[in-house]
């Protein structure tokens, strides 16, 4: 039970239907904004860019929407459910606006991009609609909205990376941070709305990435997660043609900032992950041995229809290579059940692939057709909902066995844990994560604090947490 809850939390934070409100940042400036984020880590990182743009323009963040002059929802379109959650939230804000007619409501992110000005026609209470590449225009749009016009900007860009903007960390634990290294996606997975909501892929100037990571380190952060929809296709050509920076090179540069700075990254695409990346991971102790490698399906026929451009065998050869070059490396995945035309045989292939991989963590979904995607245009969404859901349950049940096994394997070992803060259940315990991304809880000792590393002997586990004690204690 516990593991489902924990996975769901991860799930929600990454892909999700979850949100996190902004913390209070300022001492009551003139106008206050409240921002709620839904969807993937990239969307959460974008909210930090938005907060920075608004802050620069004299607005201050608040954690309480009741005292806000403007409410922003940074939205996700990945599945229908994600959009429904936002719609529901908007009906709640409709009530708030009734009592505070001056309140501005803005929709940001992927749903804004997908629905564009239609949003304002459908949801009359929305004043501002801004797509992911247009956040710099937000202050101007607020002004327009304040003068009674509706403010819309959903232009996608080929070069916007917000590279020069220092994000304001929202809901931060002060130890771990996300850093965007690229935007958009050039893959056309047939089920996926992201290429339409986020536009073409573009990489961010490596120097601005390094500068951001260095300043995070100087501020006391000890872990950065480099973010992109497909990090392995990161590529930066210096304007003077002196250097081509690949993802492996970027990873190395970030790892060299300090051995005390942990480096993670997400997401790797099985078609693009290279040996060079794996060798770089092996070379640096501070690059965490954990790879998120979404498979989506175990059936080559379905993978082809999904336009993933790899086969089951190709995927398995990548998993074998990771295990060969990085023994003990954590591997996680995403799985979709009930994609168009999926048969019982295809589904069994997904289960058998999972049996082989024994994932440490998996984010599992049933297929949700998204308007405008290749699959929506080309194929019929023909697997009945009950079958999609029952296949999902089988996948979840199987994964539960694997994730428990993966936790149990750690018992008796010593894990190097980066302390992120108090354990949720007790102030007398620290909580942090191991190199291979498992949550570890252990009793405090006075010599250690948040942001320190600790060697922890793992004594037992639940489905979602390793429980241990400090080595030599
Ligand atoms: N860029 C990442 C994934 C981003 S979306 C990658 O290539 O792996 C995160 C996950 O949501 C996907 O991996 C997929 O498993 C799931 N997903 C995307 N579109 C979906 C849809 N239409 N229905 C159900 N799940 C979907
Ligand atoms: Fe979507 Fe595929 Fe791009 Fe991932 S790689 S964001 S699944 S199109
Ligand atoms: Fe959702 Fe957009 Fe991310 S659709 S998963 S918020 S890129």
UniProtKB/TrEMBL annotation:
One of its GO terms (molecular function) is metal ion binding. [4Fe-4S] cluster 2 binds at residues 185, 189, 192. Monomer. GO terms for cellular component: cytosol. Residues 408-472 form the TRAM domain. Residues 31-147 form the MTTase N-terminal domain. It is found in: Cytoplasm. Belongs to the methylthiotransferase family. MiaB subfamily. Residues 171-405 form the Radical SAM core domain. The keyword Zinc does not apply. This is tRNA-2-methylthio-N(6)-dimethylallyladenosine synthase. Its cofactor is [4Fe-4S] cluster. It catalyses: N(6)-dimethylallyladenosine(37) in tRNA + (sulfur carrier)-SH + AH2 + 2 S-adenosyl-L-methionine = 2-methylsulfanyl-N(6)-dimethylallyladenosine(37) in tRNA + (sulfur carrier)-H + 5'-deoxyadenosine + L-methionine + A + S-adenosyl-L-homocysteine + 2 H(+). Its EC number is 2.8.4.3. It holds the Pfam family Radical_SAM. Its main location: cytoplasm. [4Fe-4S] cluster 1 binds at residues 40, 76, 110. Keywords: 4Fe-4S, Cytoplasm, Iron, Iron-sulfur, Metal-binding, S-adenosyl-L-methionine, Transferase, tRNA processing. Catalyzes the methylthiolation of N6-(dimethylallyl)adenosine (i(6)A), leading to the formation of 2-methylthio-N6-(dimethylallyl)adenosine (ms(2)i(6)A) at position 37 in tRNAs that read codons beginning with uridine.
């Amino acid at each position: 039970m516990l593991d489902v809850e924990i996975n769901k939390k991860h799930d929600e934070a990454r892909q999700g239907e979850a949100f996190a409100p902004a913390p209070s940042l300022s001492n009551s400036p003139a106008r206050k904004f409240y921002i709620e984020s839904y969807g993937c880590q990239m969307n959460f990182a974008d909210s930090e860019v938005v907060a920075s743009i608004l802050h620069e323009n004299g607005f201050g963040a608040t954690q309480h929407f009741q005292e806000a002059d403007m409410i922003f929802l940074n939205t996700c379109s990945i599945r229908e459910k994600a959009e429904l959650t936002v719609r529901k939230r908007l009906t709640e804000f409709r009530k708030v606006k009734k009592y505070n007619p001056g309140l501005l409501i803005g929709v940001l992110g992927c749903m804004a991009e997908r629905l564009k000005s239609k949003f304002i026609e459908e949801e009359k209470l929305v004043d501002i609609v801004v797509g992911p590449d247009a956040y710099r225009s937000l202050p101007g749009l607020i002004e327009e909205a304040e003068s009674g016009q509706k403010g819309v900007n959903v232009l996608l860009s080929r070069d916007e990376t917000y590279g020069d903007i220092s994000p304001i960390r929202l809901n931060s634990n002060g130890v771990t941070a996300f850093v965007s290294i690229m935007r958009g996606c050039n893959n056309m997975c047939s089920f996926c709305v992201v290429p339409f909501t986020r536009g073409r892929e573009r990489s961010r100037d490596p120097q601005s990435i390094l500068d951001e990571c260095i300043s995070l380190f100087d501020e006391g952060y000890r872990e950065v997660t480099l973010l992109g929809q497909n990090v392995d296709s990161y590529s930066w050509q210096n304007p003077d043609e002196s250097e081509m920076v690949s993802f492996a090179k970027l990873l190395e540069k970030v790892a060299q900032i300090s051995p005390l700075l942990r480096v993670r990254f997400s997401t790797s695409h099985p078609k693009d992950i290279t040996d060079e990346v794996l060798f770089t991971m092996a070379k640096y102790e501070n690059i965490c041995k954990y790879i998120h490698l979404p498979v989506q399906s175990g059936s080559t026929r379905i993978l082809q229809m999904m336009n993933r451009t790899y086969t089951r065998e190709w995927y398995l050869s990548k998993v074998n290579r990771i295990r060969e070059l990085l023994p003990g490396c954590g591997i996680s995945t995403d799985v979709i059940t009930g994609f168009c035309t999926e048969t019982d045989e295809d589904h069994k292939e997904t289960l058998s692939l999972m049996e082989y991989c024994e994932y440490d963590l998996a984010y599992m979904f049933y297929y949700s057709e998204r308007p405008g995607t290749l699959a929506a245009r080309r194929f019929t969404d023909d697997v009945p909902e009950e079958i999609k859901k029952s296949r999902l349950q089988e996948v979840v049940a199987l994964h539960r066995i694997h994730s428990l096994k993966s936790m149990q394997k750690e018992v008796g070992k010593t894990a190097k844990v980066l302390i992120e803060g108090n354990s949720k259940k007790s102030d007398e315990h620290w909580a942090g994560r191991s190199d291979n991304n498992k949550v570890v809880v252990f009793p405090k000792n006075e010599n250690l604090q948040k942001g320190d590393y600790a060697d922890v002997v793992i004594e037992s586990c639940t489905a979602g947490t390793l429980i241990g004690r400090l080595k030599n204690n």
